[in-house]
Every structure is written in structure tokens, then in C-alpha cells.
Amino acid sequence: MSKLLQTWVWAIGLCSIAPVWAQSAQPKQPLPMGVCPLPTELFQTPIEPIANLPKGAIGVRSERSDLDYRTEVASFFGDVEVQLDNQQLRTEQAQINQQSGAINASGRTRYTNGYVQVESENFRLNSAENQAYISGAQYQLVASGARGKADILSLSPQSVRLEGSTFTTCPTTDPAWQLSARTISLNEDEAFGEAWHAKFELFGVPVVYIPYMSFPITDERKSGFLFPTVRSSQKNGFELEVPYYINIAPHMDATITPRYMAERGLQMQGEFRFLTASSRGQYNLALLENDSSRTGDNSRFLWRVEQEHTWGENWRAYANGTFISDDDYLNDFGSDFAGRADAQLYRHVQVDYLSEQWQVTLRSEDFELLGNFRSPYRTLPQISSYYTYTGPFGLDFDVFSELSHFRNQELSSDYATRLHLEPQVRFSLEQPGFDWLAELGYAYTYYDQNEDLDRGLQENPSRGMMNFRWRGRLNFERQLEINGASYQQTLQPQIQYLYTPYRDQAGIGIYDSTLMQDDYQGLFRARRFSGLDRIADANQVAVGASTSLFDSQARELARLSLAQIYYFSDSETQLLEQQGAIAADRSDLAIETRFRLNNRWYVDSAIQYDMELNSTRKSQTSVEYRKDSKNLMQVSHRTVTSILDDNIEQIGMLGVVELSPRWQLASNWYYDLHHNRTNDALIALQYSDCCWAMRVSAYRRIDRSFEFFNGQPVIGEPEFDTGVSFQFIIKGLGSDNQSLLDLLEQSLFGYRQPFHLSN
């Protein structure tokens, strides 16, 4: 290498005379390789910026130089590095012309302006016009890694124009997909590129010709088609979904999705979303005007609204509701907003006022039961308020009030108005070692009912009763050492006494009440029924304890909870027939356990055990291995025993496994041990590459049909629906964020955590 060259060469700059600064090369470090690296990084050894280079000046490093003052041309040879502002050039030899401001390079040449990297054998840069022209070029976008080839590539500030070019985000030399176009234009200030006379190629085979298209080159949103979904099932036949995304504004967008079903016809689906500083909302509509697989009223639809607003610090409003044309809609078409196993749809609108002492809610709500059941009541409307005041001696005074109007959805003559007023005084004390709570209240309820003599209701019944509750808890903890490791064990025994006198409530209709779950936490509630139509009489003591084991990092490793209620007198209050009445001297024993065997293995169990019959009434147990969202396995067992012949015993298995960095497998299987049949099964296989992915899935599930004959459900062997689905995902032209775990959650019995004892 020749000695260090330090010289000045004058060249024409933009609106000024710009010096060319030559300096010897410095040692360089290789760039780290990414998860999906390009086959050849154009700048594996980046150019070291020349220090204190004035703006507009051309700096050069080389092994040798030749300065011709007559022609004002400087020639540089051997590992030449040229820098002009944010533009960098590395080549074998280069010439810089002072008069024209041109930089010509020959031999293997690599160039970058921070937005694009280019490699070619022929390069010309006009520094006066700040334009570069390259022939036979390979290019790579710095931010996204998109790459391709171009017969002619022209560069200007913030823009790239490619003639006879290709574009792909695949890192391999043989890309799975690419655009091959006559002209491609990319702009640094825009998040999208444009292509004219383009062919879309998959694995080297042209599949579609597009005269003009616009495509994303970053993660920013843009209107256009999203990935299609192809599937097939017994009920719907061949299916094809082709979503079209509309980027309306930075704070709102929409998606229109035609869904063709060979056995039913064309369904149109639409979604509109918006998000502002004080509100958010989403509206969905799906309409199949003519379901060719049905007779009679064959128009099928689903529409949904969800919206939330906040006004200042005190006011907020929320609305949420899903509406369907018929009970079989979810079973036939599925939905992202309700499960196929759901038995009801809940809808409500409410406005809240919140302050330090007041909470006031204006609400309207209703339930839609799926199946041939008596129509439920709508709440139109309900006004409730809760006022709290802290008085002397640590006493808290609360007043809860509610005014509700109920109306049957189908029978206009079936309605009622309810007024409820409940003052309460409460004293609580909390210390590190214990806490206790005493509550004394009085509940008064008045009804104005449309008298129904057939049901034995009264026109204006009223009910008043006092209630008393006392609960105390102790908090113990100790340090343990097991096999040389330090642990902390906590123990929290608790006891609660509850007294509510009996009142005859048979003349009151049931509008919003149901029996709540008797799990560990439920045994320490103040009431056994939800709503206010039934307040159960009680003279009972609940006793329970919970113990936990924590490691040195305060992670809970194990928990055991047991509780039971002892009744001093029978509870006579009934909900429906004998539902809710208690004639035993004690409740079921509620047991809950949870074990964290290590950072990946968990065991959860919840049991309700009848001590008198020595049998399990309800139980759910699961063993779960969870490494991450791509590696999860769970085995579960669930039982529900009833005095009627509707017992449930089910075993389930599900898992998501990453077979390799590119292959993922997901599956679930739920088997009904009581009826000896598979109720739900699904398997999905996904291949993911750096630039494309493919997902194939198949399912078999029980058909939850609500078909009726003369008002009665059709009885017989259940039917099953089977189907397959195929998705091809092209990365770099959009995104698909749904994981295989999300796919399992959409099945009939999806993955759920935590686990609850419910029918």
C-alpha cells in the first residue's frame, strides 16, 4: 500500500464549490447476521465516516490516486471509498470530475445513501444534480431488507426508480415470491412502492399479471387486498375469503370481505374501526342475502357494535352487542365475537358517572338465549347508584339504590318495574396479621308487575329484610428451608357468619336472578343468587383456609384452598322449583389447588365434593406445559354430576409445538366419556419462512344445531361437521398476526386460562 495520501481536489458541489477529501482507510468490523440474513450483505464492512467532513464536500480514501490538474479529473485506485454527505461508495477505481460534478466508478461497486444499498459493475453519480445511475444492479432497502435486481436503477434524493426490475422480501437467491415489473418506483418518504406492468411470481412461476399496483415497503397501513383464505367443510362446501382493507385515515379504517360458500352463496362481511384520544369503536356486519341451503326465510346476518367514550374525569359510556338472524348462525358460520359453544348473547349499553363518593350508572341490557327457551327479559332501562361515606370511629356508610324496568322480549304484556333501596353500615379493620369486616344492612324492594295469575305472581309485592355479615381472617407466614433453598409459606384461615331472615318471595317474578357458583371464593359471598329477585335466607358459618408456598423471588409455587359452609337452619328460598333450596347441614367441600412445578409445568384443579354422598359433584383438572406461545401442551379432565341424567365427563388435550424454526403443529381433541364420542378435534400444520408461510388445518366437531319440529328440539344421534382450511401468507406485502394458539381458541372448546367450574 502506498503512503498516506492527504490532498485536496476541487469539484463542483450543489450551488457551491465542494472539496474532495482523500484519507487512508481504517480497519472495519463485519456486520452481525440476523435471523433471516440476505445471502450477501452489500456492506459487510461499512465505510468508516470521515471525521469533520464539511457538508457538500466529497471525501475519498484509496490506496493510490492520480490528480490531473489540466482536465480537473481525479482518479483513485485500490479499495476506493467515497463519501458525500450521507452517500457512501466503495469500488475498485473511481474518477471525480470537478467541472461536471460527476463520479464514475468501475469494477465491483457498492453504493448506499442510507435508504438503499446497490451493487453493480457500472456506476455514475452527478453530485451537482444529486442523481445516480446504475446499470445491471442488485439492490437492497436498508430498513425492510426488501431486495431485487434492475436493468437500470436511477437514484435521486428520497426516491429510487427501477427499470426492468424485481422486488421481493425473501432473503434467498431463489425467492419463493417476487414482483417482476417493467418499472418500480420507491420513495423514502412514502411507506409504499408502485409497480407498472407487474407479474406476481410464486416459486418462479408467474401467477397473475397486474397493470398497476401499490404495495407496502414498511409496516404502515395501506388500502389493498389482504391474504385470501381457502377452506372446505361439509356444511358450507368450498369457501373462499378475499379481504380488502381500506385505510380511511390515521385513526380509522375498514375491511370488506366477500366470502363465497359453494353450498350457501356469497356472504358480504364488513368491519369499521376508529380510535381517538377519548373514544374507540368497532362495527361489524355480515350478510348472506340468500342461503341456498335453506328453505323459507333464508336471509342470514350478524351485526355487532362496540363503542367506548370518555368525557373528562367523571363520565364514560360503553356499548357492546352482537345480533344474529337465527340460533344456528354461529354454528353454521362461526364468528370472532362469539363461540360456537355459547348458549347466549349478552348486549348492553351504559353511561357511568364516577366521583369520590358517587357511582351512578344508566344501563340497558338484554340476553338472547340460543335454543327453544322462554324468552328472557330486557332491562329498559336500569338506573343504579352507589354512595359511600366514611364517618367517625372508622364506620363506612353505603347506600345502594336501583330502579329497573323489565320487559319480555316476545310478550309485550309481560313486564315489571322494580325499586330497590339498601342502606348499609360497615366497620372494617386491617392489620398485617389479621383483618375483619362487619356489615349490617337493610334491603327493601318494591315491584309493580303486570299480574300473571297463571304463574301465581302478585301485582305489587314488596319485600324488606335485614342482613348481617361478619368475616374475619388471620394472616400467618413463616420461612422454610427445603434442600438448601429458602421459601416462604403463608396460611390464611378465615371464617364468616351470615344471617338473613326468611321472606316469602313466591309472588315475585324472576327477571335477572340465577344461582351463582359455589367455588372457594363463592362460599364467602354475602348472597347466593345474582340479581335482586331472590335474596336467600341464611343462618350459616363458612369456614376455610388457603395456604401458599413462595420462592425467594416471590413466585407462588403451590396453593391449596379448602372451604365449607355449615348451616344452622335450612334455606327455604327457591329460584325455580327446588333450585336454590337447601335441606342439608353443610355445603359441598370446595377444594382448589395450583402447583407450579417449575417455570414450564403447572397443575390446576378445582373440586366440589359432596361429603354426605361421598361423590364429586364438579371438578376440573388440568396439567399444562408452557414454554412460550409456540410450545404449549395441556391435558384436562372435567366432570359435572347431576341428579338428572345430564352428567358431563370430558377429557381434553391440546398442544402447540414448534417442530423446528419453520414448522409448527397445533392440535386439540375433546372426548365425551359419558357418550363415548369425540365432540371436537382439530389439527393444523404451519410452515413459516422468512418471506412466506403456509397453514393447513382440518377439524371435526359436533354440530350444535337448534333445529325444531313443532316447537320441540329434534332428538336423535348428533351430527358432526368436518372441514379443511388452507392459507398462503406472503410476508412483506401485508401481515397475518394470528397464531396457531389463536386458532385453537376459536374451536368449540378452546384454550382457556384460568380455569373455572362452570357448565
UniProtKB/TrEMBL annotation:
InterPro entries: LipoPS_assembly_LptD, LptD, LptD_C, OstA-like_N
Any one Gene Ontology cellular component term annotated for this protein: cell outer membrane
Keyword Membrane: yes
Biological process (GO), any one: Gram-negative-bacterium-type cell outer membrane assembly
Domain LptD C-terminal: 299-669
Keywords (A to Z) from UniProt: Cell outer membrane, Membrane, Signal
Subcellular location: Cell outer membrane
Pfam families from the UniProt entry: LptD, LptD_N
Residue ranges of the TM segments: none
Cleaved signal peptide residues: 1-22
Ranges for domain Organic solvent tolerance-like N-terminal: 60-190
Family per record: Belongs to the LptD family.
Subunit structure, as described in the record: Component of the lipopolysaccharide transport and assembly complex. Interacts with LptE and LptA.
Known role: Together with LptE, is involved in the assembly of lipopolysaccharide (LPS) at the surface of the outer membrane.
Protein name: LPS-assembly protein LptD
Organism: Pseudidiomarina maritima
Lineage, opening ranks: Bacteria, Pseudomonadati, Pseudomonadota, Gammaproteobacteria, Alteromonadales
UniProt gene name: lptD
